Amino acid sequence: MDVTIFGTGYVGLVTGVCLAEVGNNVLCIDIDPHKIDLLNSGGVPIYEPGLDEMIQSNRTAGRLRFSTDAKAGVEHGLFQFIAVGTPPDEDGSADLQYVLAVARAIAEHMTEYRILVNKSTVPVGTADRVADTVREVQARLGRTVEFDVVSNPEFLKEGAAIEDFMRPDRIIVGTDNPRTAELLRALYAPFNRSHDRLMLMDVRSAELTKYAANAMLATKISFMNELSNIAEAVGADIEKVRVGIGSDPRIGYQFIYPGCGYGGSCFPKDVRALERTARGLGYEAELLRAVEAVNFRQKTVLFRKLNDYFGGELGGKTIAIWGLSFKPNTDDMREASSRVLMEALWEAGARVRAYDPVAMDEARRIYGERPDLILVNDALSALDGADALVVVTEWSQFRSPNFNAIRSRLRIPVIFDGRNILDGSLARAAGLTYVSIGRAPLK
Ligand code: UGA
After folding, report:
1. 430 CA to middle of ligand 1, Å?
2. pTM of the entire structure?
3. Which of 15, 36, 58, 323 could form a disulfide with 20 if both were Cys (CB 3.0 to 4.6 A apart)?
4. What is the pLDDT of residue 194?
């Protein structure tokens, strides 16, 4: 089938390449000529495991093309995926200007039936706004070409996006038109083989499902982070509590890992946007507000622990940081806990020596050259001349370090584990003080 994707960001690229992989003819459109040039010359603007290889093989096979030509895009695909950004406005609500600009472009160039498929995470009611926008343009141009707007939210996890798209646990299709539903069912058939994962619903429920899923997951994390602070106060061990509650299948083990807060481009933005949507309709979403507030506070927990340990004397200290990305297997540092920590350390007059397996260039891009940020090429080098080690991101390569090597390279033998991924008893056996989340330090 012929598919057009507007937006070659994270969701657009993954959607485009996966649809091409199963044999569709995909044309990706972006207004940024630099991005399109890069993609056309074999580059990839983001890091995602497996993406690069799949883009190159599908380009070579001629099933995946990139262009800035919106008209060609509208002519090409029966399916017009909208996968452009919805950055937060100053008040946290989603800014729809890019989504509506694509809707206008499609309306201007459309000469036969088209299905507009919303993949961007958009507030409830956006599909109706997209449809209104198309109708307005058509009225202005004196045309009436048939179209449908479908909500088909994406549930990809960064770092596992290809796998999530190829083997989804659900495919949500929101449309009131049975014919459109059948066309989407056919498009998704290669991803929907073993049992039916396609869930058909009305447009607004599909739009809300996306926010509900992310808000629920963020709530689980904030709940555990809140509990971790209570565990510390009462002298309990949050890791024992986690295992104890996770064994109840109604609660489950997933997404109940306490840590130094959630980041990324989705949870923080989506929780805020849902709360703003509710408020705009006269409903105060108290729980969502608390989820956000708890997360905000949890991102400062590592700084507070360091500050307590050093008796408020962080000025002139050097702190080693392992992990800069908001989670493993990505170079994405949007809303990452590492940023809150580094910025607080700088404010207190400390220096940072940091290592991340893939996010070093991103850190350079964000912070530029500065004397209080030293980016090093391997984990152990971060420790040279450092007064403490802080683990911020749960990369698997940080999970079983050589504690003796850490002990001999650090100036002061102390580790702060912001994700509870290290074996504290081994750290202590090597002569290190081990400070973690939601339990007493091991000295
Ligand atoms: C999230 C959702 O998990 C996806 O289902 C969704 O499609 C995506 O947002 C989106 O809306 O596009 P993502 O932001 O890639 O995916 O990352 P997650 O793996 O969910 O991790 C989010 C954050 O939560 C990370 O900072 C992670 O370290 C933290 N986390 C996760 C915890 O602190 N504890 C946990 O138990 C799990």
Report:
1. 33
2. 0.93
3. 58
4. 82
CA of 259 to the centre of ligand 1 (A): 12
Rounded CA-CA distance 5/137 in Å is 20
Which burial class, exposed, middle or buried, applies to 346 when counting CB atoms under 10 A from its CB (0-12, 13-18, 19+)?
Answer: middle
- Ligand 1 touching residue 258 (CB < 6 A): no
Question: Distance, CA 157 to ligand 1 centroid (Å)?
Answer: 7
Q: What is the CATH architecture of 299-435?
A: 3-Layer(aba) Sandwich (3.40)
Which residue among 18, 28, 260, 266 is the active-site one? 266
CB atoms within 10 A of CB 53: 12
ipTM of the assembly? Answer: 0.95
**Residue 54 carries which DSSP code?**
H
Contact 98 CB / ligand 1 (< 6 Å):
no
Tell me the per-residue pLDDT of 93-115, one tens digit each, with 9 for 90 and over: 889 999 999 999 999 999 999 99
- By most ligand atoms within 8 Å of CB, the mutation choice from 327, 331, 437 for ligand 1 is 327
What CATH number belongs to 211-297? 1.10.1040.10
Longest dimension (CA), the chain: 78
Known catalytic residue at 266 = yes
- pLDDT by residue (tens digit) across 59-87? 999 999 999 999 999 999 999 999 999 98
Instruction: Residues 2-201: name the CATH superfamily.
Output: NAD(P)-binding Rossmann-like Domain (3.40.50.720)
Report the C-alpha gap between 71 and 67 in whole angstroms.
10
**330 token code pair:** 């990505």
**Cα 398 from Cα 322, distance rounded (Å):** 8
**Amino acid code (one letter) for 246:** G
| Boundaries of every domain in the chain | 2-201, 211-297, 299-435
Fold match between domain 2-201 and domain 211-297: no
Measured from the CA of 261, which atom of ligand 1 is nearest? 33
Question: Average pLDDT for residues 418-433, to the nearest whole number?
Answer: 98
For 172, phi then psi, to 5°, come to: -95, 125
**Bridge partners, 353 (sequence order):** 320, 374
Q: Is the pLDDT of residue 92 over 80?
A: no
